[in-house]
Design goal:
Helix content is 42%, strand content 13%. It is α/β, with parallel strands linked by helices and 287 residues long. It has a single domain, classed as Rossmann fold (3-Layer(aba) Sandwich), CATH 3.40.50.1110. Strands 1-8-5-4-2-3 form a six-stranded mixed beta sheet, sandwiched between helices. It has a two-stranded antiparallel sheet with strand order 6-7. Helix 2 crosses helix 11, helix 4 runs parallel beside helix 11 and helix 7 crosses helix 8. The longest helix is centred in the last third of the chain and has 23 residues. The two termini are 23 Å apart. The N terminus is likely disordered. This is SGNH hydrolase-type esterase domain-containing protein. Pfam families: Lipase_GDSL_2.
Amino acid sequence: MLLAATQSLQAQDMLPGFPRLQEAMADCDTLCSYGQRTDTVTVPFITFPATFRELKENEITDSLGILRPFWEKLRLLRLGASADTLRIVHVGDSHIRGHILPRTAGDLMQRTFGALSYTDVGVNGAFCLTFTRPDRIEKIAALHPDLVILSFGTNESHNRRYNPMLHYRQMDDLVRLLRDSLPGVPMLLTTPPGSYESFRMRRRRRTYSINPRTALAVQTIHKYADENGLAVWDMYNILGGTRRACLNWQEAGLMRPDHVHYMPDGYVLQGELLYQALIKAYNDYVR
């Protein structure tokens, strides 16, 4: 599929028309082999903007096979051996609250597998700690997810006193509460895509520099996942890491003027990359 593409942070709620996505999906053969009742799914091809450099393989890290129960349910669904609707719940900050990223991934998953629901639960300016309230845990549990995706780290890393140990404990608080309410449900962590921090210079001119704490937050997410049995989709390092993660998006014109959030086309690309990573991991399980 071809593509031309701490502070409380605000998201955009307006959904774009997805013109490129609709054109690409008009021919279903470009995404998956609908006419064949096979286990595997054709992995969509993504062409990046010319500015994107130093990319890595778009893969989910799951060395312990934490997601295997979900892949098996997905396989049975694709083969028509299960009539149950699979439910993915994507929880996170303003990147998720803006809807475009999760709905792009969810629409593609639904078109590929059929009886699958993909619900986003986002809060502007959210930290992991934001969702440790009982009412929010109950809301997530009431959705009866088969997979929970957790997307945080942007707001944590925008605190200039960022503390990896505190971030680790906050992730642990959230995951433990979710595991108590949703025993046996696998979880996938994602890393923040990268952002800038701003400074006021002389004559009150604002300047921007790459947020150096994003890389620390990403390391903390990996450490927590490794030590507590969670899978990770590391969008930050897949799309350039410390050298290029921010520059790739900025030079392609896919970041908003606040240098934290993304243009609609940027979130569409992120959603399609998440879908591609899910399909690759699913195919690895089936094979």
